[in-house]
Amino acid sequence: MDKNHILKNFHKDLQNSTPLTFPICVDSFTNYWSTEFGSLDELPKEVDHLIAKRGLELGLLEDETF
Fold first, then answer.
1. 52 vs 63, which has greater pLDDT?
2. For 38, phi and psi rounded to 5 degrees?
């Protein structure tokens, strides 16, 4: 599977997430990535940024946590 395609879909899923579905979306993505690529070791740094940005937008994170 193409990493860029997976990341694009994850970004779309995050944008559509709500405070209730956000953790499910992140868990689903990390589980899929681990299954597809064997671990989270090569997870692009942009994923952390996407998760933190959306968490801030939803009020689930505070600025100092990022």
1. 52
2. 90, -20
